[in-house]
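ARCHIVE RECORD
Type: protein–small molecule complex
Small molecule: zinc ion
Source of inputs: curated submission
Record status: active
Notes field left blank by submitter.
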Amino acid sequence: MNRFVRESLLRLAIVLTFLASFSAISSAQQDQPLRSVTYRLSMPRPVSHLFEVVIEVELAKDSPASSLDFQMPKWSPGRYSVFDFARNVQEFKAFTLNCSPRSDAPSSINCQVPPLSVARIDDQTWRVDTQGIRRLTVNYKVFGNDLSGTFSQLDSRHANYNGGSIFMYVVNHKPDPVKLLIEPPTGWRIINGRMDRADQREWQFPNYDLMIDTPTEIAPDWTDEQFEVDGKHYRVIVHSFGDEGGKRPALVRDIEKIVRAETAMWGPPEFDSYTFLIHFAADDISGDGMEHLTSTQIIEPGALGEEGVYGDTLDTVAHEFFHVWNVKRLRPVEFGPWDFTRSVSTRGLWIAEGITNYYGHIMRRRAGLWDDTALLRRESQTITEIENAPGSHLMSAEDSSLSASFLDGAPHAQRTNLANTSISYYPKGELIGLVLDLMIRGKTSGKASLDEVMRHMYDEFYLQSPNASYYLRGRGYTTEDFERVASEVGGFDLSGFFRRYIRGVEMLPYDEAFAYLGLHLAREQARQPYNAGIGIDWDKTNSLTVAVVRNGSPAEDAGLQEGDEIISLGRKNVTRENFLVSLSRYKQGDRVAISVKRNRRTIQTTLVLGPPERFEYRIEERKDATPEQKALRAAWLKGA
Ligand SMILES: [Zn+2]
Ligand SMILES: [Zn+2]
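STRUCTURE (tokenized, with ligand):
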């Protein structure tokens, strides 16, 4: 850089500084808090799936604002891809309220509601002209027919909403206090994680962010069970659309065991009461778990009475309840207050979600819902998943976190190669948590653990930190903060570990970690049939269609593509049911004719079969485990 450029940049910097301070003053004038913001939610025609929202705003007395912008979030916290909730907004209108004493009867008030001019200024924002007025009302309808922790559903059975998908905020006024009034259909009852009394219809929230952190269920027939742990009140709300098989009482008892195990690790939670909102959708499609400050939404696609659904529910409960501390309060620095105009990027989702996944599984063991074998089998499956994924060698845990908006349920209009290039921060972070925990336990002879790292983090960044914003107590952490705290608690330098396994893509040091506990990791060729790099689209039930072609595989060498419909193998017709069995009749080096249908043409090509590419991993007990190693293992499993 030469001197002239440097000097002109310096001058530019001075001008920009001046402009920045000027605009800060003018926006501070514009953005003095609104006198009041009131949301009214109604649902007069459930079959239409249209929620009706009214927002009443009273401006400050001397507000110079000539317009107010009402904005629909592009995404909502806990799910990191952009969904553009504005796509379901319709019939946005604005009115003012002019009231004056009646000339014929001065003790009465005469009010008019003339419409205000509205201009839509981008894909998520409606601008209302407020020149010279003090009070205005906007209303709009928003369509919702997805039962999910991210979206909302209104139908003849219930209303279930995630606030971010139905409520607009007033731009620059997210920090202002808001009031919410809900008018349910006759006979429907409201429940959420902020109930002060049974028939409550009105809530006051310190700000918009907390209002949309309160998912709400409104229906005539949800059930309510309650328990207490350490003086805190817990409610299990269940809305079942299928047969429960008499399992609900046992489910509530097991949820209580999970609450006891997790509060035993963390200490008492900050709230007085917490609500599990659980749906059994019985539609084989809807499934989700979403964390909130004093509640969680859990949606299972099956019916509670069906095989496997009970265990899946407890898995989600153990994960979501752990978020009470990790994510909702102890959080990455980027997590709130939120910018809803673009996706949020953090390198820390492997901590926020991955380590939560790890503890979700450990806590099932500590709660007595799993035995040691079940836990080790689950962790072995996660290792098998990650170590066989081609993306493991290309994408680090931090890169995966930064890619969340592409990975976390993101809709893709164009084809991507993410199946070959990405890994999820959930299982990868789970394994980092596992290895880190065992290494800290091993190196400190059981004096410290990842439990302690998490408690230290919670203390430093939540309980003891001054508020960094209006949003929530404490401040967020960076991954460097986590590295420092883990190194301090563990008493050894973790910079190499972070460089190689968290910011890099090297295989985690499983052998070292398991050895501390008298365990070892066995690796053998997978029993599952060889697939030559072809991933089948199992959702397409009436054809044998290629969903994924693994990079560098025999399938890619043969020129196969995503979307190809496989017709025959070795000149014999094949189906979804017999394809993998047919392929397994051949051996490495065989040349097998394959024909596929692509764009109305039939293409013949040859698969040259390669070596087996999948391995299965199994955590096993070492026969020569010492009493010390066994003691460390017992402490890990029981949470000592
Ligand atoms: Zn419901
Ligand atoms: Zn989670």
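CURATOR ANNOTATION: The chain is about 30% helix and 25% strand.
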